[in-house]
């Protein structure tokens, strides 16, 4: 059977998780080294959203738009299970990992297969970042498509590794695609917003809400709900299925979230809203430089400071240890076992002393010497 990965044949999941950790270390190193030559371009656009919200179609639209606008885009497909892509991807996870083989080999279902494929790919992600770094001067945007099921990317270690790897090297913006016609119920809308909110706080990256499929349903209702709390409250109240106080209080806390994000209405099919979308991306990239990058640098400096302090403490400890051991001081352990050993040692010392006394005393005669004297006597 062909191995799903191009490299060695008998790896197992445990090994892969080790590799994942290794790759995280590698990425940390590359992130640290790249901080000095951080580039303002390209802007990474990571497209996430619920299954069927239109991520892949939207990405296709973005590819067409960047091409028409004479912008240089680079496309990355992270969905191992997609049958066919409407665009040509520069880097495609399917070229590296065969998702069906992963399912067979690790005996997994479709979601486990996608997740493991993404983990396998994440182990190679430092290479992906360096490929993009090499082309950075010639690129304006890197467009990233993610697996259909949102949680595979947003709640997995590999998704976090990939996002962090990008965010520590280039300005990175997350785009959350919303299926507008399916979010017209206030409760569905709120669930979707809570999910987007959790992504914002998890990644700490600028977030753009792309209300997709506006050719089917206008996103005006969503903007009204986000702008005016009372309008949304009224909508919740009229929704008989769910009128609990929980929904009310949750919706209130979401207002803080709405203030931190940009939202645009788009249609992947008609291409509506593209200019507004790219304006939101540019503003978000600036925001990245002002907030995320600054925060990243601060965190890095704090980490370095802590590391420096730790190193100094260790050195101080070592210096003290050396000073105290110079005079030959040995700290005795008073554990039971050692106590026996210490007693033994004392007995032996006593023996030595006895022997010394005998040896030093004038009466003491060595056996051999005695024999010698006897021999002389009888000769
Ligand atoms: N009417 C309409 N349909 C769309 C739009 N964007 C995507 N779709 C449809 O939504 C379905 C799911 O799209 P897809 O891009 O595969 O979603 P993904 O799973 O998020 O990648 C497909 O049938 C698309 O044709 C849009 O802007 N308008
Ligand atoms: Mg897709």
TrEMBL record:
InterPro entries: Gpn (IPR004130), Gpn1/Npa3/XAB1 (IPR030230), P-loop_NTPase (IPR027417). CDD domains: GPN1. It is an enzyme of class 3 (hydrolase). It holds the Pfam family ATP_bind_1. It is found in: Cytoplasm; Nucleus. GO terms for molecular function: GTP binding; GTPase activity. Keywords: Cytoplasm, GTP-binding, Hydrolase, Nucleotide-binding. Residues 303-379 are annotated as: Disordered. GO terms for biological process: cell division; embryo development ending in seed dormancy. SUPFAM superfamilies: P-loop containing nucleoside triphosphate hydrolases (SSF52540). Residues 303-323, 336-347 have a biased composition (Basic and acidic residues). The keyword Hydrolase applies. Residues 348-373 have a biased composition (Acidic residues). Its EC number is 3.6.5.-. Gene3D superfamilies: P-loop containing nucleotide triphosphate hydrolases (3.40.50.300). GO terms for cellular component: cytoplasm; microtubule; nucleus. Binds to RNA polymerase II. Small GTPase required for proper nuclear import of RNA polymerase II (RNAPII). May act at an RNAP assembly step prior to nuclear import. Belongs to the GPN-loop GTPase family. This is GPN-loop GTPase.
């Amino acid at each position: 059977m062909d191995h799903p990965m191009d490299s060695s044949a008998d790896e197992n999941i445990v090994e892969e998780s080790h590799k994942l950790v290794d790759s995280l270390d590698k990425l940390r190193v590359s992130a640290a080294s790249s901080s000095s030559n951080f580039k303002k371009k390209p802007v990474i656009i990571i497209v996430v959203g619920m299954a069927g919200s239109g991520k892949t179609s939207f990405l296709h639209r973005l590819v067409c738009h960047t091409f028409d606008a004479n912008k240089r885009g680079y496309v990355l497909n992270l969905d191992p299970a997609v049958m066919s892509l409407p665009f040509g991807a520069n880097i495609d996870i399917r070229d590296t990992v065969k998702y069906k083989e992963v399912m067979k080999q690790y005996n997994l279902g479709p979601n486990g297969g996608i997740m493991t494929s993404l983990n396998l790919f994440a182990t190679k992600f430092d290479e992906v970042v360096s490929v993009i770094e090499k082309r950075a001067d010639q690129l304006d945007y890197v467009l990233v498509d993610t697996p259909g099921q949102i949680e595979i990317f947003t709640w997995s270690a590999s998704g976090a590794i990939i996002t962090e790897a990008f965010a520590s090297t280039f300005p990175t913006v997350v785009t959350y695609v919303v299926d507008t016609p399916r979010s017209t119920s206030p409760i569905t809308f709120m669930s979707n917003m809570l999910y987007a909110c959790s992504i914002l706080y998890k990644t700490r990256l600028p977030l753009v809400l792309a209300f997709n499929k506006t050719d089917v349903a206008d996103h005006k209702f969503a903007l009204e709900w986000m702008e005016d709390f009372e309008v949304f409250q009224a909508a919740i109240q009229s929704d008989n299925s769910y009128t609990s106080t929980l929904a009310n209080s949750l919706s209130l806390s979401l207002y803080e979230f709405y203030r931190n994000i940009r939202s645009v209405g788009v249609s992947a099919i008609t291409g509506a809203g593209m200019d507004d979308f790219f304006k939101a991306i540019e503003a978000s990239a600036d925001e990245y430089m002002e907030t995320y990058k600054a925060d990243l640098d601060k965190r890095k400096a704090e980490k370095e400071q802590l590391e420096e302090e730790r190193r100094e403490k260790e050195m101080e400890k070592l210096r003290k240890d050396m000073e105290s051991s110079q005079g030959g001081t040995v700290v005795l352990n008073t554990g039971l076992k050692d106590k026996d050993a210490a007693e033994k040692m004392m007995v032996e010392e006593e023996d030595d002393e006895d022997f010394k006394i005998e040896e030093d005393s004038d009466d003491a005669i060595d056996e051999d010497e005695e024999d010698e004297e006897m021999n002389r006597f009888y000769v």
